[in-house]
Amino acid sequence: MEDGLLENGISTKEAMERLVRVGRESVERWNEEKKPVDYGCSVDKILCRNLFMFSLVSAAFLLVGAVTIENQLSVTLLLLATSHVIFLFAAHYMQWKLCKSSLQEKKRKAKEALDYVSSISTSLPFAYAPLGEPLTHDMLTQMALRDGKVVAVPRLLLVEGDVILLRPSQAAPCDCKLLNGEILKMGDSISGNVEVDHETGAAIPLEAVKALATSTPLAKHLSSVGSSERRFTTMDYQLHYCLHMVAERALLPAFAVMAVLACVMRFLLDGNQSLFSTRFVFAIPSLIVMPLTAPTFFFILLFLHRRGNAAVCDVLRTTRGENDKFLQCVVVEDNHSFLM
């Protein structure tokens, strides 16, 4: 049976069934391989653990200040604190759902692609790419035996059990095993001697050697897709710097100190009226800090955006000026040559 496999290879239908099965198993393992959620400061999260804790402390101050010593409830402060907490948890929940939905969206697209492969595998004969692709290190197809014929199979569609044809100078498209027992990892070449043309310095393509594929490239590809992260834009980094660097580490501590000092000064200079008659004194720092910090985010972001765009414009202006000078030199040289 093994001799027949090496002579004819596996069938296209069997190869596609293996490919779809391995692909679906790899997609289902994404949940097990995904990294735990990081609640710290990161570029992909606007709301992080530090801001969450600060907001909870702020809400606690508001709740303490909502009740007087005589147990008289301030409805306004209570509603404000409740709305603050509800909005806080809702925002963090929405952020968590968005982070989770990105993985689900990738799973949905991967399953749609696998369903498409499964549907076209039933429509025989399967249309392979034409043979004759130049033999390069990064060639997109691989010669293999399927249905008793030599066909050009896309590297991503190779499966474990495929009989592939390797030349000594060609890198293996996947993990495979030669008939002599030599094992090649993906990217390795056959260790046999390669004939080199001394006139051109190029390797002479020798007779192709049969090898049995022992891995499925699609599984590794899907694993890298599942663990990949979104590429961040300049706007994402600007928001991260404004919220997590400037606001949390500079503005919030400064405003908190200013609020506490203002509360103390008001208590000391208030004369006979004591603020300790109610617990509202605990809510004053929270009421001062949050409204003051909210408008600053826009101005900080606008400043960083302008500075970033100015730097980009300077680079483009310099590059454009150098290109204009180069073109002027070329035109002058051409005109001079024409006149001569």
Characteristic key phrases:
6 strands, 8% strand, membrane, ATPase_P-typ_transduc_dom_A_sf, 8 helices, Calcium-transporting ATPase, cytoplasmic transduction domain A, 340 residues
The major beta sheet can be summarized as:
6 strands, antiparallel
Please estimate the helix content.
55-70%
Poorly predicted runs are 329-340
What fraction of the residues are assigned to beta strands by DSSP? 5-15%
How widely separated are the two ends? 78 Å
Q: Record the strand order, biggest sheet.
A: 2-1-3-6-4-5
* Quaternary organisation of the protein chains: single chain
Number of helices: 8
- Rg for CA atoms: 33 Å
What's the total number of strands?
6
Structural class: alpha+beta
Helix and strand run: HHHHHEEEEEEHHH
Can you tell me about this structure?
By secondary structure, the chain is an alpha+beta fold. The chain contains eight helices and six strands. Helix 2 runs antiparallel to helix 5 and helix 4 runs antiparallel to helix 5.
Summarize this structure briefly:
The protein has 340 residues and is an alpha+beta fold.
Give the helix/strand layout.
Blueprint: H1 2-8, H2 12-28, H3 30-33, H4 49-65, H5 75-121, E1 141-146, E2 149-154, E3 163-166, E4 176-178, E5 183-184, E6 209-213, H6 217-227, H7 234-268, H8 284-339
Antiparallel strand pairs: 1-2, 1-3, 3-6, 4-5, 4-6
Helix pairs in contact: 2-5, 2-6, 4-5, 4-8, 7-8
